[in-house]
Specification:
Blueprint: H1 22-36, H2 43-50, H3 54-61, H4 64-76, H5 82-88, H6 92-106, H7 117-123, H8 130-156, H9 166-185, H10 190-202
Length: 206
Amino acid sequence: MNAPNIQVIAPRKKGRPLSFDRDAALHKAMLLFWEHGYEATSLNDLTSALGVTPSSIYSAFGDKKGLFFDAVGLYLSGPVTLESMLAQAPSARAAVQTILEGAAIGFTGETTPSGCLLASAALSCSESAADVRQTLGAIRQGMEAQLRDRIVLGIEREELPAQADADALAGMTMAVVQGMSTAARDGAPREKLLRIAAAALAAWPH
């Protein structure tokens, strides 16, 4: 997913702060959703953290859900995207190594919440936010499909045995990433996540 499009903010209305930095607000909202999930993050939490009024959020993002999906877009936009990792890796195995090691590092950042925003937000969604959970699931499925396509290409290029199961390998990689997210949320250190990544790579077919 590409970075969210930056919208032009409408002229200031009554109750709106004199200045509103949309990018800065979006970054703060991303961290809040990442830490607490979608449903547990209230509109009051957002307005307090962003230092804006509800009308500012409505004007810039439409509503809480719009703000959340823009935050997801920011989260997925970089600095290194899945697309770039798959395109730049010399092999399918190298791509998976980059993904797993990048997850281990990203899930244990010093200035960001632990774990993965997509996983954290989805786990906290009840039936009343089923559409949010379904959208997040579709994003993860799309990521798995991209990885599967790269593995299929690796098989075609004879990087992997002809009998390698691209669907299972892509699914295993995503399952390991989600498991690492849970482990990070539970307090697992980066060093342990990197060892988990190495163990998963050891099972990669040669």
